[in-house]
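// run 5 | inverse folding | seed 20
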């Protein structure tokens, strides 16, 4: 579960519509697609919205409760989010901690819940024959949560949520800046004041009676909307909804929210200290309410001002003046006071005050003159293109319909939503800025390095484990048939896509998958050379080279490229991994020919301008400094350095080191590009609304002249053995410990891939895995702890990772090793193996919901030489794994005696416990992974 800080701002505003295949088609390119939904209400007040969409054998279930922090009472900040967690603790007919396990076994994906200021939602996408299961789970916790609710459940989730606060607010760089901003904008009496997650004191102060009262008041059928989208028959779906929800009692009328948007007539400011390396400035104003006049203008103004490399603030602060490392702007649209904010992080040697001054200068120009027609058109194109890209997901439809229904009382608002952006003029955007972004009428937060003030410590009152059981209550009469977990219906045969392919005469491989339902195309140009080919003295070269590709060509400057991407409504990203370097784009199908031409230009004709290299060098050096404040990134960096050593490419992060970034020159990048970027070492993977013939003609035109050449792959030696088994990075006063336990794993080519995936799913790959249930649900040590194998061309790492409560660091290490050893000591139960296999096989269609997901999946086939029909054979490989195979794999590949422990946290508090574990001496390293003298 998670809480949504910006869930209903611009990112959510275009977070996923879908249309039925029959309603879209090619004709949808020219106009606004139609959403073929049906809405009705049960007698108990539950609203139901249904959409049939038969593109994939999947169904999305999405339920919104019309309650959030906006409904909280004084002294109970964070309660709506805490209650969201309680909804996963079991109900009368669903055993505690069984919710995710049942969904994982069913092959569900995108299953979670979020709390935002005005609502709470619960969702899952799963194979269509498992719709009964989703409705059974959702209806049982709506109707029978209190029948199982006890103090043990509440105490455990108070621990979990407080760990979440430590991880996402207190231990995350700048996390407290967001909270401070809401404190400045809203008075303490306003429900938005405390942000979504609330305070430690209020979370800990919540009582069982508060939970019961909240449930009876807000978690009732007449305060919820259920949306079902996907491969369904609506008549049958209605019968299932009636079966599972129809008998639940209507609740009392929900009290109306009394708070209103505060009027700010004078500005406020505060300086906060945090464990950061770079200063940050954040400016914010309270603006038009969601869907009211000025709201669309706010979205467009945010895009023009700070929405990407083509935005005004990026060009001025990051590119021209080089004051900022990053800058962004956003309109967060809400019911009781929307928030428009601008956030910028300073480059080393610059201050938040400088950023604020530069931002105000740009804002002053914007207030007086507004955007140009071209800027407004680019912003509008981007927003509409983003909307279209979300048309691919079933969960996106459900969330969008619930979103409209929640705020407007009707799900039928797509056309009006698009039109409200199309109608906005440059004068209206200027007026928005002049009237609502007035100087001195908002709030300013400056974040500077220092010791943060989290307030007084709030201890958990229970010293011993709270027993299960105790007084419970019932709201609805029992229905004995609910005791049985629903059996799945008849499943459609599992058919995973096999792409078409051809080669250009120059050796470039083209991989194609046509998906005509939505007018979107995604593409990725992949070369099979990555950071594994970095020279020993130049870690980070592949990443630096990739970053330079869109920084200028022989015919386009860096800013011209950024502006062209914006005008096309496209996204374009360059990236490197240990095994490959890539350029990815996504656009509307009508813009794809131009977008592909742009991609070809930056791949075939990069200029590597020296002035842009200087800019990128400064940016990458600042990023390295910035990463030192992120405990999770530090833990990953130290793990790599310890496992692989300084002579192996895997011993460094993609960005490299400060020394290597300073020393890299243009000639290094040109040589890397010439050796790596040859067509016979590359593939263009394309998925979306484009035919094979159309793609062939475009690819030949854009890349037919690319010259082939040799591109040898490196032979990587064996990594150096770690010098110590416990490595500690001191972060005095850290709110929690970022923990890693692991060893060198296996390459992607291992014949044991399938059994390792099943083994890891059982150990730590799933929410219902042994490690997570132990450390989170049983012990309350963490917000979440998981394990994974990082498969690479050579042996990547196996790591268990998580943010751990400081006082539980050593006990968590003990429990992790216990679970690892238990995997080898005895074969897992048949139930565990079935869950792991089903979760892996049945969820495979979820990898192909969107064009971007499809392209990523097919890119892996090329990078690791897996064969185009790999996914069609993978289910059989996974299904063939037996319990004894899992145990044998654990014995073979998990060696506790070889594993290292990396802990990034408060040394004074965690070193004594770690030293007593008997794993050897503690070695101290710095944030760059270098050994420190003691």
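// decoded
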């Amino acid at each position: 579960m998670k809480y949504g800080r910006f869930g209903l701002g611009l990112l959510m505003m275009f977070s996923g519509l879908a249309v039925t295949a029959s309603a879209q088609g090619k004709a949808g390119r020219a106009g606004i697609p139609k959403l073929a939904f049906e809405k009705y209400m049960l007698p108990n007040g539950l609203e139901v919205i249904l959409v049939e969409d038969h593109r994939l054998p999947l169904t999305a279930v999405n339920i919104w409760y019309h309650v959030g922090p906006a409904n909280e009472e004084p002294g109970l900040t964070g309660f709506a989010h805490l209650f969201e967690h309680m909804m996963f603790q079991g109900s009368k007919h669903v055993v505690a901690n069984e919710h995710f396990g049942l969904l994982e076994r069913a092959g569900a994906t995108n299953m979670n819940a979020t709390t935002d200021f005005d609502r709470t939602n619960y969702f899952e996408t799963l194979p269509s024959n498992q719709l009964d299961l989703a409705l059974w789970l959702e209806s049982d916790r709506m109707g029978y949560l209190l029948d199982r609710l006890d103090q043990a459940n509440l105490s455990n989730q108070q621990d979990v949520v407080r760990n979440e606060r430590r991880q996402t607010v207190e231990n995350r760089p700048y996390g407290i800046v967001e909270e401070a901003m809401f404190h400045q904008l809203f008075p303490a009496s306003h429900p938005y004041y405390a942000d979504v997650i609330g305070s430690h004191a209020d979370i800990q102060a919540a009582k069982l009676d508060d939970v019961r009262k909240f449930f009876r008041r807000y978690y009732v059928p007449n305060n919820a909307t259920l949306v079902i989208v996907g491969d369904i028959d609506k008549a049958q779906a209605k019968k299932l909804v009636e079966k599972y929800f129809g008998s639940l009692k209507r609740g009392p009328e929900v009290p109306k929210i009394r708070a209103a948007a505060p009027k700010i007539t004078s500005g406020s400011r505060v300086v906060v200290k945090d464990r950061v390396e770079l200063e940050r400035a954040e400016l914010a104003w309270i603006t038009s309410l969601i869907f009211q006049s000025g709201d669309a203008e706010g979205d467009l103004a945010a895009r023009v001002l700070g929405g990407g490399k083509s935005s005004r603030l990026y060009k001025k602060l990051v590119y021209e003046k080089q004051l900022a490392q990053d800058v962004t702007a956003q309109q967060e649209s809400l019911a009781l006071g929307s928030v428009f904010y601008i956030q910028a992080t300073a480059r080393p040697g610059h201050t938040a005050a400088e950023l604020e001054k530069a931002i105000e200068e740009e804002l002053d120009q914007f207030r007086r003159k507004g955007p140009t027609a071209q800027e407004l058109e680019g912003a509008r194109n981007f927003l509409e293109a983003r909307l279209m890209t979300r048309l691919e997901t079933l969960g996106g439809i459900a969330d969008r319909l619930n979103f409209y229904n929640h705020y407007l009382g009707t799900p039928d608002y797509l056309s009006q939503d698009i039109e409200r952006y199309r109608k906005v003029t440059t004068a209206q955007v200027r007026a928005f800025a002049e009237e609502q972004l007035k100087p001195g009428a908002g709030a300013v937060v400056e974040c500077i390095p220092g010791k943060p003030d989290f307030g007084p410590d709030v201890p958990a009152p229970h010293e011993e484990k709270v027993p299960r059981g105790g007084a419970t209550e019932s709201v609805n009469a029992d229905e004995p048939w609910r005791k049985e977990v629903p059996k799945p219906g008849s499943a459609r045969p599992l058919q995973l896509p096999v792409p078409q392919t051809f080669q250009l005469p120059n050796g470039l491989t083209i991989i194609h998958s046509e998906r005509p339902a939505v007018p979107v195309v995604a593409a990725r140009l992949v070369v099979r050379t990555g950071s594994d080919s970095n020279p020993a003295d130049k870690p980070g070269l592949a990443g630096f080279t990739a970053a330079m590709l869109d920084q200028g060509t022989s015919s386009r400057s860096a800013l011209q490229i950024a502006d062209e991407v914006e005008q096309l409504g496209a996204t374009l990203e360059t990236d490197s991994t240990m095994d490959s370097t890539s350029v990815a784009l996504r656009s509307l199908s009508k813009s794809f020919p131009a977008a592909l031409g742009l991609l070809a230009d930056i791949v075939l004709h990069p200029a590597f301008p020296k002035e842009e290299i200087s800019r990128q060098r400064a940016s990458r050096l600042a990023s390295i400094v910035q990463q030192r404040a992120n405990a999770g990134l530090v833990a990953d960096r130290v793990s790599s350095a310890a496992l692989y050593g300084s002579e192996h490419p895997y011993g460094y992060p993609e960005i490299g080191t400060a020394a290597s970034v300073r020393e890299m020159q243009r000639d290094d990048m040109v040589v890397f590009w010439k050796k790596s970027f040859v067509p016979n070492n590359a593939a263009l993977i394309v998925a979306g609304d484009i035919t094979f013939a159309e793609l062939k003609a475009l690819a030949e035109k854009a890349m037919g002249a690319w010259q082939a050449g040799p591109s040898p792959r490196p032979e990587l030696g064996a990594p150096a053995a770690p010098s110590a088994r416990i490595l500690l990075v001191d972060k005095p006063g850290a709110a929690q410990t970022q923990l890693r336990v692991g060893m060198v794993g296996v390459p992607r080519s291992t014949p044991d891939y399938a059994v390792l995936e099943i083994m890891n799913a059982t150990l730590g790959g799933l929410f219902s895995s042994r490690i997570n249930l132990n450390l989170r649900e049983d012990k309350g040590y963490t917000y979440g702890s998981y394990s994974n194998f990082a498969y690479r061309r050579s042996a990547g790492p196996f790591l268990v990772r998580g943010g751990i409560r400081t006082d539980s660091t050593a006990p968590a290490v003990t429990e992790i090793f216990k679970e690892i050893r238990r995997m080898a000591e005895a074969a897992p139960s048949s139930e565990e193996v079935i869950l792991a296999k089903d979760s892996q096989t049945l969820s495979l269609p979820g990898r192909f919901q969107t064009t971007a997901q499809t392209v990523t999946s097919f890119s892996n086939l090329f990078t690791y030489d897996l064969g185009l029909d790999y996914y069609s054979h993978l289910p059989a490989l996974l299904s063939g794994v037996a319990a004894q195979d899992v145990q044998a794999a654990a014995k073979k590949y998990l060696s506790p005696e070889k594993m290292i422990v990396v802990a990034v946290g408060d040394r004074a508090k965690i070193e004594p416990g770690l030293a007593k574990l008997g794993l050897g001496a503690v070695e101290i390293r710095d944030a760059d992974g270098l050994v420190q003298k003691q």
